[in-house]
């Protein structure tokens, strides 16, 4: 299906990879911008300059050591828990939806939703700081009443793609879901 470049909600470039594994199985991966060496360097320099200023005033070398350790630990924690490189959605019409988040440190987080729990995939809108933000979400059926919605699972939360990117993913998801609902209707 291909690769396309889009912008995220902050105006940075993101890449959408689409792959059709079969007629009822598609994978969408949104690759986020890489960590900027400039921003890491500027933050590190700011912390170390502040530590050196405190050291010059107090003559305590413990301040410099603490600044170095805090900077390294902070960067490692940021890479392992916060900086997301890629988010993917794997939709298998007969089985379910798998959401995978890949962090910069290599850690991955995966959530699987069975297709029998999926009511629909929609594009929703939210108001944030005087602007409208669109996001793709999965509506889950209420186990007690299948006509009701019990939960909303947002997709691509970290990459925050704009509407044009979400529309591509939405259309492909709806193609698979419509085939699934047609097959269920013919079985009834």
UniProtKB/TrEMBL annotation:
<dbReference type="GO" id="GO:0006506">
    <property type="term" value="P:GPI anchor biosynthetic process"/>
</dbReference>
<dbReference type="InterPro" id="IPR019328">
    <property type="entry name" value="PIGH-H_dom"/>
</dbReference>
<comment type="similarity">
    <text>Belongs to the PIGH family.</text>
</comment>
<dbReference type="GO" id="GO:0016757">
    <property type="term" value="F:glycosyltransferase activity"/>
</dbReference>
<keyword id="KW-0472">Membrane</keyword>
<protein>
    <submittedName>
        <fullName>Phosphatidylinositol N-acetylglucosaminyltransferase subunit H</fullName>
    </submittedName>
</protein>
<comment type="pathway">
    <text>Glycolipid biosynthesis; glycosylphosphatidylinositol-anchor biosynthesis.</text>
</comment>
<dbReference type="Pfam" id="PF10181">
    <property type="entry name" value="PIG-H"/>
</dbReference>
<dbReference type="InterPro" id="IPR044215">
    <property type="entry name" value="PIG-H"/>
</dbReference>
<keyword id="KW-0808">Transferase</keyword>
<keyword id="KW-1133">Transmembrane helix</keyword>
<feature type="domain" description="Phosphatidylinositol N-acetylglucosaminyltransferase subunit H conserved">
    <location>
        <begin position="88"/>
        <end position="157"/>
    </location>
</feature>
<keyword id="KW-0328">Glycosyltransferase</keyword>
<dbReference type="GO" id="GO:0000506">
    <property type="term" value="C:glycosylphosphatidylinositol-N-acetylglucosaminyltransferase (GPI-GnT) complex"/>
</dbReference>
<keyword id="KW-0812">Transmembrane</keyword>
<feature type="transmembrane region" description="Helical">
    <location>
        <begin position="61"/>
        <end position="81"/>
    </location>
</feature>
<feature type="transmembrane region" description="Helical">
    <location>
        <begin position="35"/>
        <end position="55"/>
    </location>
</feature>
